[in-house]
Amino acid sequence: MDENVSLLVKYISESQLTSFADLVVASTLTKLAGSQSDQIALCPARDLNRWDLAQGNYVFVGGPTSNPWVALFADNPNFQTVEDTVRHPSTLCGRSGRNTCPG
């Protein structure tokens, strides 16, 4: 492998990279928390382990490719994202046994 390619692979595998969209989500959640925002901790998916999940509440940001926790809990989340670009660009719906989604 070329040295430059090797350095690039090392950089990507060791860096904490995220998308702009995920940054917007994290920023919005922090703003929505208001005075409670100091209780929010942002953590890369690779630093989280299953024992951490036993303590506190978590919001997983990203897709299953960038965040394996999303794939792990995809079949049984408390909330789901519904894409309906005609009426509501992106809606977060609760799964409380009743229909909380618009439309």
Write up this protein.
The termini are far apart. A hairpin with a 3-residue loop joins strand 1 and strand 2. Strands 1-2 form a two-stranded antiparallel sheet. It contains 3 helices and 2 strands. It has 103 residues and is an alpha+beta fold. The mean pLDDT is 74.
How many distinct beta strands? Answer: 2
Helix residue percentage: 25-40%
Kindly give the count of domains. 2
Strand order of the largest sheet: 1-2
Q: What's the helix count?
A: 3
- What summary fits the major beta sheet? 2 strands, antiparallel
- Mean pLDDT score, rounded? 74
Portion in beta strands:
5-15%
Ends distance: 53 Å
- Sketch the topology as an H/E string, one letter per element: HHHEE
Rg = 17 Å
What gross morphology would you assign? Answer: globular
Structural class: alpha+beta
Uncertain stretches: none
Q: How would you name the oligomeric state of the polypeptide chains in this document? A: single chain
Task: Set out the fold topology.
Layout: H1 3-14, H2 20-33, H3 68-72, E1 79-84, E2 88-94
Antiparallel strand pairs: 1-2
